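User: Predict Zinc-type alcohol dehydrogenase-like protein's structure from this.
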Amino acid sequence: MTASDTMKAVVLEPSGRLADAVLPRPVPGPRDLLVRVQAVSVNPVDTKQQPGDAPRVLGWDVAGVVEAVGPECRLFRPGDEVYYAGDITRPGGFSEYHVVDERIVGRKPKRLSFAEAAALPLTSLTAWEGMFERLGLDTDDNQGRPILIIGAAGGVGSIATQLARRAGLTVIGTASRPESRAWVLHHGAHHVIDHTKAFLPQLQALGFPAVDTIFCLNVVHPHWDAMMDALAPLGKVCTILPPFAPVDFRKLFDKSATWCTEAMFARPKHRFDMEAQHRILTRLAEFVDKGEIRSTLREHFGLITAANLEKAFAQIQSGRTIGKLVLESFA
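Assistant:
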């Protein structure tokens, strides 16, 4: 095997440790792009992956340049700059080269660097699908309708707040620390409340007797009762995690309310309506290039190495991450 047939990568070993490795360069399938990876970002999903019997490449947020295309590709050509979240059922992007189905890829926003762009795909798709598809909100004109975003300072919350503000919603974000509260306000929230306290009294103090739309980006069960108290009759709640402890569904039933879930990887995993993610990322790039949405990059962890990824994983696992963490280039 020659040097042109291999690539640098970071793998999750069977021992559970991250390690630098050299792997065979992947070959694109019929609808795949071969992407030369320029930057990646780290998400909680990376830190939750379990080791297997063989080394595994993680990483599902990539910005890079198309190196080659499969014979059935029609959306991209070599040289295109792209960004995407990828498919959790396939190897991730902590590698010099990565293959991805073109139907879940968008052209990188022109005004962003690769590092800034890598911060956006997974969280933006989650926010967009959760708010505009699951909760049924309008993408452009919601006439001041209030939305409560629980966990607004995190990766998804940082972009959800911007998209909600742009869509004409009155954004009430939650944050529990001065620095996270400042981040939420900086990204467009009209109001910030503390998610370690009861929601309803804080909402009422702001003039909201209840809210009919809640987007929960934190662990569900600690906030369930507070959400049910704050939710208006016939309201909707969308969560991006399942409850990890029992919750009282009678409270939901009592208000004839709706609970829905958002799983960003569902489209590529089950291979349905995949090109919708291409369209979402394309539209998001338009918003960015118009100056309506900014990158949520907050910390740059340097080169893509096992040691730097270990540090980024530890930051994610601390539960105190604000915005997105990014790594860029291989040595």
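Residues 124-261 form a domain with the Rossmann fold fold (CATH 3.40.50.720).
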